[in-house]
User: Which sequence fits this backbone?
């Protein structure tokens, strides 16, 4: 297992946990090292058939403050004087690798939002399939406060999660949303006390991980494909996917277990 410098990675019983581990600086995700490490975990999870769920959280009091403001100051001086192309490439080769890596992960991703998720940190939670928040969690699409826009693609995710009007209000005002409001507007699935956050996420992850692994990955692919397909094309994919699923041992195990009134034992075959 790879040794990481700025994240922690654990894997047990089909559940992987990625922890952003720069608590002293509130877990920024804009540095080359942490971007590469997140990308590496996404690749491992995608191609490891033993993994059924990925949980993403932050160490310390914050989930993620997004970009490192001190680095922004340094880069501003570095790229001043008409070096716009260099900045564009810095986004493509830097933080934009995170949404592309997460988008390629075909197991469910749960964000355990333990604290402030600001800027790119807020966007990172929106890139996950499910979000459970601590009562200490806060969310902010705060790029305009720094004279920026969401360069990590956050607007693409936020509008899909909470609708255009609410996403526009959060973006244009750059105000902070607390956990309870986040629940009300659909940013998170549930809000729990801090000490219950990881147990709650693990319970959900175990429920998901108990499902047939191949069909679980296919179900996630279909959910994502549904947002960019016509109905006719999507129905073709559903027919193709279920045609394959019905040939598996896990399908027959699920049917047999239901008829025998017992819990199924799926094996990924």
Assistant:
């Amino acid at each position: 297992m790879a040794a990481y410098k700025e994240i922690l990675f654990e894997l047990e019983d089909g559940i992987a946990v990625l922890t952003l581990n720069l608590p002293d600086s509130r877990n920024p995700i804009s540095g080359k090292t942490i971007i590469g490490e997140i990308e590496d975990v996404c690749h491992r999870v995608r191609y490891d058939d033993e993994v059924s769920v990925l949980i993403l959280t932050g160490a310390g009091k914050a989930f993620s403050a997004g970009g490192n403001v001190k680095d922004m100051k340094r880069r501003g001086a570095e790229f001043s004087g008409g070096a716009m192309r260099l900045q564009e490439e810095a986004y493509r080769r830097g933080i934009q690798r995170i949404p592309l890596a997460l988008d390629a992960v075909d197991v469910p991703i749960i964000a355990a939002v333990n604290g402030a998720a600001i800027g790119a940190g807020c966007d990172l939670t929106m890139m996950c399939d499910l979000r459970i928040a601590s009562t200490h969690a806060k969310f902010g699409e705060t790029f305009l406060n720094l004279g920026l826009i969401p360069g990590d693609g956050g607007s693409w995710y936020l509008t899909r999660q909470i609708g255009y009007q609410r996403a526009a209000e959060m973006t244009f005002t750059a105000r902070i949303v607390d956990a309870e409001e986040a629940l009300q507007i659909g940013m998170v699935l549930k809000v729990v006390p801090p000490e219950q956050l990881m147990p709650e996420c693990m319970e959900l992850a175990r429920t998901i991980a108990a499902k047939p692994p191949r069909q679980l990955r296919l179900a996630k692919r279909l959910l994502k494909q549904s947002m960019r397909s016509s109905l006719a094309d999507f129905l073709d994919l559903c027919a193709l996917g279920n045609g394959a699923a019905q040939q598996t041992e896990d399908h027959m195990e699920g049917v047999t277990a239901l008829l025998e009134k017992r819990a199924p034992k799926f094996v990924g075959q």
